[in-house]
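[job 4471] stage=fold_predict status=RUNNING
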Amino acid sequence: MSRYQVLTFGESMMRLTPPGFLRIEQTRSFDIWVGGTESNTAVGLARLGMKAAWLSRLPATPMGRYISNRIAQHGVDVSHVVWADEDERLGIYFHEKAQPPRASEIIYDRIDSAMSRISPNDLPAGLFMPGVADIFHVTGITLAISEGARDTAHAAIERAKAAGWRTSFDSNYRSKLWSGTAAAAGCDRAMSQADVIFCPLGDYQVMYGAATEDEAIDALASKYPNALIVMTLGADGAQARRSSGDIPRQPAILAGEVGRIGGGDAFAAGFLYAWLRFEDVELALKWGVAMSALKYTIPGDLPLVDREAVAALVAGAPGGGLIR
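[job 4471] inference complete, writing structure tokens
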């Protein structure tokens, strides 16, 4: 048995959010959360009972340790985190929650963060070896934050493949990090090597142009024929396209929105959990949709779910509004 079932790699930041729906310019305090797409997915997998590890680079400061401790407390192995000098900085982002017609807003303060300074030489010796992990997961955010992070991600993918691991890639497009055209070009190398590609329909349309859900998933399958393509469709659920050409679909599960940030990461965690455990794409879609729906009901970025609750939702058991 592998030491880890999934190893994820990426930046996690401190998120500062005004309480309630206050604007940043009027608040006198901030709620503190931890958020990072790959660590969110690792936490979701660990909460489901899988052996998950997270690799990153953090400053050796109280803020860096805060991030590491919050991720570790949910069962994720953080022993491979690279610790930078105390004079380096932690990435921060601000989230101003709003209700329509005012839009919620995210403001990044992550330029020149410790993670953005990572290089392939920082990859731990002996980690990317046969039998250490089953699958390596990374996203387009890591490729976008700096040239060093991109080079390190590519080096990690290549070492994972050489060690016999499978790789998982989520496009996770962020308009504040790069353009759609740059993302399409920048993600191509990682997507070409991936065994599983997660790409929301919205990401596809920004990166490659207008398309229906069927056109988009067929185009990705044609471009990356060796990958299982998984596409989330927002309120319409999710679909996947196997090498055989069939496209199973899963409707969305109605959820009350409390904390939508991290919903896609929760979906990836649920999908990878079921795909690795049961090798069943249809069931993996159900677990992904159920995880995402439950995450929407939880404040913060992390999918702090219970495996039993996800399994009950997958099985169709009633649960909405009930007190357990």
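[job 4471] summary: The chain has one domain: 4-313.
[job 4471] exit 0
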